[in-house]
Structure formats: C-alpha cells, structure tokens
Recover the amino acids of this structure.
C-alpha cells in the first residue's frame, strides 16, 4: 500500500472538513483502500488518483484503481476500475473503468 496517497488524501480531506480530525480521515482512507482492493479483480492494484468525496447526503467516496488483468488471455494488460465506497455501510463496489480516462498503453 502506497502511504503517499493516503497522506495526501488525508491532508486534502482535512482541509475540506475541518470538523473531522486527521485521525478520522486517515481511518476513512485506510478503510476505503482496503475495501476497494478486496473487491478489485485486478492484480497489483493501487490507486490511480485521489479519492473523490461526495456529499454526505449521498455518502459515497469514489476511487479510481489501476492494476493488471489476471486472466491468462489478457497477458498482463493494464486495467482500471472505479470503486464506489459507501461510507456508512463500509461496502465497496467495483466497475470496469478502462474507458474512463481513455486508452492506456500496456
């Protein structure tokens, strides 16, 4: 797990929501990354950007992931997934997102 992403995300989130402690954001980011990695179908999965925090009325955090497809026929091709994390239930949901940013080179 790359702690640089977590530290940067915690810093950004703390600036956005001064009512929440740095520790609370760090815990959120840790839960987010753990849950998203657990449901990902990619190998060597890692964040491809910073978390996007939706309004509390929706209660979601989005995180773009990148890694490699594990299927033999995919020959280790790079792929992307979008993870939507429900903050209240702490559940993560994954969707393929290769077309989200455009074509990527292997």
């Amino acid at each position: 797990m790359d702690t640089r992403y977590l530290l940067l995300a915690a810093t950004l989130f703390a600036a956005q929501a001064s009512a929440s402690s740095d520790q609370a954001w760090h815990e959120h980011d840790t839960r987010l990354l753990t849950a998203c990695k657990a449901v990902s179908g990619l190998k060597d999965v890692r964040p491809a950007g910073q978390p996007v925090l939706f309004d509390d009325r929706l209660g979601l955090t989005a995180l773009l992931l990148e890694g490699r497809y594990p299927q033999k026929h995919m020959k280790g091709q790079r792929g992307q997934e979008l993870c939507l994390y429900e903050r209240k239930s702490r559940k993560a949901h994954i969707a393929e997102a290769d077309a989200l940013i455009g074509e990527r080179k292997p």
Q: What stands out?
A: The mean pLDDT is 85. The first helix runs from residue 3 to 16.
